[in-house]
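On clarity, I found the account of how folds are encoded harder to follow than it need be. Since the whole study asks how a given chain folds, the encoding of that fold should be made plain. For illustration, here is how one protein appears when written out as sequence plus structure tokens:

:::
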Amino acid sequence: MFADAVTPLWTGERGGEGRLLLTARGVAPVEARRWKLEPGEEHPSHPHQAGAVETVSVTRAG
């Protein structure tokens, strides 16, 4: 599946977007998301549960 085929969960005022690509439940739940933020955009979020691990990979277009 291509990420663009998934409906955005968030759309920014300048064209950014957030999409949930994968969810796996279990003892160690996993979510894979793709975020695209345009200059000047931000997306505040709520804190994760204690013990949660978040891995971020940042790429720059252009």
